[in-house]
Design a protein that fits this description.
This protein has 120 residues and is mainly alpha-helical. Helices cover 63% and strands 8% of the residues. The chain has a two-stranded antiparallel sheet with strand order 1-2.
């Protein structure tokens, strides 16, 4: 399996949210739309996901896992866990907990930001 961490995160979230569209996935994960588009394109090229038009608006494409990856959730989960263990090795649990809280607060704040007003 040759996937990046961000691709793995997208895949793991798609296991529980098949049929989600690209914009919803970006919003749910607090990931830039362009970065999501790149990862989706890569995953599609690798044969892990497909995009299908399932609505009247043909611009909206729903994302689905291919049969190649439907039974591999544990493999992807294991890869992600190994990476997270590697990058956090030697860090205290308290530090990681505080970091997680800060990141969540930043993500929540970014959700309510009015960028038009902010960049006036």
């Amino acid at each position: 399996m040759n996937i990046s961490y961000s691709e793995g995160i997208l895949l793991m979230n798609m296991y529980d949210n098949e049929g989600i569209n690209q914009e919803e996935l970006s919003s749910m994960l607090h990931i830039d739309k362009a970065a999501t588009a790149r990862s989706i394109k890569s995953l599609e090229k690798k044969g892990y996901i497909i995009r299908e038009v399932k609505t009247k608006d043909r611009r909206v494409k729903k994302l689905f896992l291919t049969d190649n990856v439907k039974g591999q959730k544990e493999n992807f989960s294991s890869l992600i866990q190994k990476w997270e263990d590697f990058i956090t090795e030697g860090m205290e649990t308290e530090t990681l907990t505080q970091f997680s809280k800060v990141i969540k607060l930043m993500a929540q704040k970014s959700e309510i930001a009015d960028f038009d007003e902010f960049f006036k």
